[in-house]
Amino acid sequence: MVCSYMTTTQEVVTRLMEIPAYEPQQGPAPEDLVIEDIVVGDGAEAAPSAVVNVHYVGYDYATGEKFDSSYDRGQSIEFPLSNLIAGWQEGIPGMKVGGRRKLVIPPEAAYGPAGTPHPLAGRTLVFFIDLIGTH
């Protein structure tokens, strides 16, 4: 099994100090998944079946409220893409190690419509994701 990770500790430390900020947007939220590369990485590319190691921060699209952040916990997280919300399953493949991507995820590709049990149900979410590794 081949794994690709960022090449130096300094790169990881630099990324940890650069927590992306988000300002709420005016107007209606997009109805479809929006994928925007902020920084294109130059490492290995994440496949749909990959296990990825990421740092991320999540915001509510409408209010700008931060609801989750691996940066705040001081530790990246590793997991198989197949275990994640649909917006991450669609939005991370093709991303390269060392890259930063912004995903705007409608409720249907996140935690479902309003009225379902998850506290983020019915909300459009914005994630900034730094891909640290993939295998």
Automatic annotation (TrEMBL):
Gene3D superfamilies: 3.10.50.40
EC number(s) reported in the record: 5.2.1.8
EC primary class: isomerase
Residue ranges annotated for the PPIase FKBP-type domain, each copy included: 49-135
Cited Pfam families: FKBP_C
Record-linked InterPro entries: PPIase_dom_sf, PPIase_FKBP_dom
Keyword Isomerase: yes
Catalytic activity: [protein]-peptidylproline (omega=180) = [protein]-peptidylproline (omega=0)
GO MF annotations, alphabetized: peptidyl-prolyl cis-trans isomerase activity
Record flagged with keyword Lipid biosynthesis: no
Alphabetical UniProt keywords: Isomerase, Rotamase
Family membership: Belongs to the FKBP-type PPIase family.
Protein name: Peptidyl-prolyl cis-trans isomerase
Organism whose genome encodes this protein: Corynebacterium choanae
Phylogenetic placement of the source organism: Bacteria, Bacillati, Actinomycetota, Actinomycetes, Mycobacteriales
